[in-house]
Amino acid sequence: MWLAFQGLLEVGCSLGRLRLVHIRMSKYAIFGDSFITRLQASTYGKLDFDRPHRFFGVSGMSTQRKFTSKFREMLEYRPRYVFINLGGNDITAACDIHSIYINLINIAEDLYNSGVERVFVASIIERGNFKQWTGLNSKMFNKIRRSLNNKLKKYLVMILCKWERDYSILDTMIEI
């Protein structure tokens, strides 16, 4: 996967929680859909930084189907920081942008309420292929995704990611 982090900014945290979190080890969780499973596969489960981290990805995951068992598994890991890549699988020709937005906000709030100090949300990125049932083409998807990203930007600070337009299992990650 071609991945370029252009910026990395936090959503926020509570000051009361900061003091409690400093006594435990800083663990990172990477949570999301097939982009996360492919990132895990292409890096053999190890990112290039010296902090404990684990991937919690499921192909097909969406903000409506966050795969409760995987979410619970991530919470049991007790991460200090969570990076989320979700939302793209929610987009169809008939989707409600506000519902996707609220689902992402609720996931972030669930994480904060579970003791996570900081949550990072990736912007929804371009895709090259669309299943027929979505009723989408590239132009429609990008219009919806940009609208949702703009709505999220007003509430969240985002990770800006760029992925290769047409991804495959053979993609590799690069650092910029």
Question: Main traits of this protein?
Answer:
disordered C terminus, Rossmann fold, 5 strands, 5 helices, five-stranded parallel beta sheet, alpha/beta, 176 residues, 35% helix
Can you offer a commentary on this structure?
This protein is 35% helix and 12% strand. The chain has 176 residues and is an alpha/beta fold. It has a single domain, classed as SGNH hydrolase (Rossmann fold, 3-Layer(aba) Sandwich). The protein has a five-stranded parallel sheet, with helices on both faces. It is globular.
Short note summarizing the structure:
The protein is an alpha/beta fold and 176 residues long.
Whole-number total of structural domains: 1
CATH architecture: 3-Layer(aba) Sandwich
Poorly predicted runs are: 1-24, 158-176
CA(first)-CA(last) distance: 13 Å
Quote the average pLDDT: 76
Number of strands: 5
Q: Tell me about the largest β-sheet.
A: 5 strands, parallel
What's the SSE blueprint?
Layout: H1 15-21, E1 28-32, H2 34-42, E2 53-57, H3 68-77, E3 81-85, H4 97-113, E4 118-122, H5 138-155, E5 158-159
Parallel strand pairs: 1-2, 1-3, 3-4, 4-5
Helix pairs in contact: 4-5
